[in-house]
Amino acid sequence: MTTVFNQDREGKITQNPASHGGYAIETKGLSKSFDKVKAVTSLDLKVEEGSLYALLGPNGAGKTTTINLLTTLIAPDSGLATVAGYNVATQPNQVRRNIGVTFQEVALDRNLTGRSLLDIHGRLYRLPQAEIKKRTQQLIKLVELEDVLDRQVKTFSGGMKRRLELARGLLTEPRILFLDEPTVGLDPHNRERIWAYLQELRSKQNITIMLTTHYLDEAERLADKVGIIDEGKLVVEGSPGGLIASLGTDVVKLTGTGDIARFKEILREQEWIAAFRVARAGSEEETPAGEETSGLFDILVNLASEAGRSVKPLVDLAERSGFNVEDVSLQRPTLNEVFFKYTGRRLRD
Amino acid sequence: MATVVKKRAVTTVKESGEWSGLLVGIYTLWLKHMRKFRSSPVEILFTLATPVLWMLLFGVCMTGMVTEFQGGLGYQAFITPGVMLLTGLTAAILGGTTLLLERVNGTLKEYLVAPIPRLAVLLGSMTSGLTKAILQAIAVLVAGCVLDSTLVFRVLPFLAAIGVVALFCLGFVGLASAFASQAKSMESYHSLIMVMNLPVLFISNALYPLEIMPSTLRGLALLNPTTYAVDACRILLFGTKPEIGLLIDLVVLVLFMFGGLYYGYRSFNKVMQKIGA
Lengths: 349, 277
Ligand SMILES: Nc1ncnc2c1ncn2[C@@H]1O[C@H](COP(=O)(O)OP(=O)(O)OP(=O)(O)O)[C@@H](O)[C@H]1O
Ligand SMILES: [Mg+2]
Description:
Chain A is α/β, with parallel strands linked by helices and about 350 residues long. Helices cover about 35% and strands about 25% of the residues of chain A.
């Protein structure tokens, strides 16, 4: 009896898109495994309507699988997911009508021309011909493909294909747009343009965007909310600013040589130091304890309070502990640090 | 949170409005395949080259050796139905390649997240495969008329023969789709086709009448749908004495068509289910 009741309640939430709680995407306990690999494990996400949500995570974290589940490409093993208020498992068609997708890997028919490809896409969504033509014209200007539109896709460069895919995803003016690593392989100019366009798009219409990315600067600049996933689980979620703030304040980097073991002892005793780690100079990879023998090291210190008043004490402390400081630099923490803190891995961008 | 996810059947068409979605989907994908076909003369040439070579080389050589068939039928006219069916078969199988290629290179994903039933993806590639098959069968028939004066163009018999080609090709379109859904790679699909193509032609009455075959071969030929299709085409086109009989031919071909289509549908479904969609 209880299960039936539960299902009923969930059914009601999903069957009435107008009255759901303002979430464009919502998942509860969403799981999917491939044979023995648990790609997504009990994922709970809430993406507010009109927001831009960035999924971050190392390779194999389950980002693409999450997108595939939400776009109805594959079905979940268990758990619930609603997109635009519709259940992905039981109402895939309604979901599909409301979304636009670009996949991580290029999925374009190589033997069609760009124009024909967009035309076919529009027809699948039953857009009238005039509308397809009009939007093609607009979008193609945006992604700067006017000159190559009538060429076969196989003659496009990688970045051109990427931009054509983006235009295709936007052609149907979806309420929710899923972009799996949209700016991979784009040159800085085109990356900037796509960012600018996504922001413009959001300011003009109430579109919700979920994207995955490895570029932390991208997430930091674009996203209202960031979710970091690792091994199929959501590790932490929040606004980029909030996540960065949660790390404490600034990071002070001390570069130098000396008795690292002793310095670490002393650092641990200080209350005004939130966290620190030791890395061989320039490597950013944490050096395991005991291997810090000789050479130049970076010591990255997260201060518990404003950096302004603590840099001098920190340098003094180092000198007193037998660590010869050669250089001091201040870093504002980025999502990179957040990412590192929660996954123990570092992304390069 | 023990939520139960209802496994939805991949290709059920139940919601209202789904039927129009199905039709839109089939038409759009058909259109796409035809556009690609039109813009790739190589594919057209390639599929036409084999049968035309058959007609020219094999037909011309054999004409000298074979004394005339019943009713003054020339040898090129005699093999026209078989070659026509072979062409259709090749086209049907190339249609399967399309499905396989799109599955392997990821293009299919676009259609799987579009608001069309998944069945439309299968039927879109099946109908375009069939269209190509029929266009090419017509080309062979025309070539037959040109090459051999004993094959005379008449509207109704020609249409009927094309109908037979359609039944035959649909069966193979189904089989091709089944293999294309399951094949691990392009290579395995191609080797399968190489193996299938020749016996389909040789172990049948396409190139020689059933009565002159050794009895074991004749037995095997009777298991080959080509035999029935060839027989039906000859009866319809030339009014020759049936080797089997039009009614039996048609029954066998219709059964073959449904069998092939069902097998294709089932395999496609199974693959879709496996990706859990
Ligand atoms: N079709 C599949 N069959 C088997 N395993 C799969 C399949 N798809 C994904 N996986 C596995 O699921 C896990 C998550 O993969 P996923 O593609 O979602 O990662 P990702 O976060 O998108 O990684 P990346 O940053 O490299 O794109 C990986 O371990 C992957 O090997
Ligand atoms: Mg991925």
